[in-house]
Amino acid sequence: MNDTHDSEKIATLCKIRDIQRSVILFEQQFEKQYGVSLNEGMVLCSLTKAERLSSGELGEKLGLSPSNISKVIASVEKKGLVERSLGREDKRQMYFMLTHAGRQRISSIGCGELAWPEMLRPLLEKSTSTLR
What we know:
- By secondary structure, this protein is mainly alpha-helical.
- The protein has one domain (2-131): Orthogonal Bundle (Arc Repressor Mutant, subunit A).
- The chain is built from six helices and three strands.
- The mean pLDDT is 85.
């Protein structure tokens, strides 16, 4: 009985490993095709849905720590896809928005055209059907 439970745990762990590999492969292909990492793409996508967002708001939306979101923002700023501005009420607060180049880049990423990894398709189809 214990062997069955252990086998199930191992199978689950192997499935998670396979999913992780699929995501890593997808991110490598995504970055090669669009010139931005998956996190950078998600920052651009988040900024298309809002006029401007603070680093804290972006980090919260993407589930990234403050240090990780700072690195991602710095990277898309360096690529000229995002620019920063001071807060209107609080001049210490920084906000980020898409540049013209950022809007062009995100529009070039045709999400419907992406070649999703086979293993992730059922998960993605389920999540997109709930959005309709």
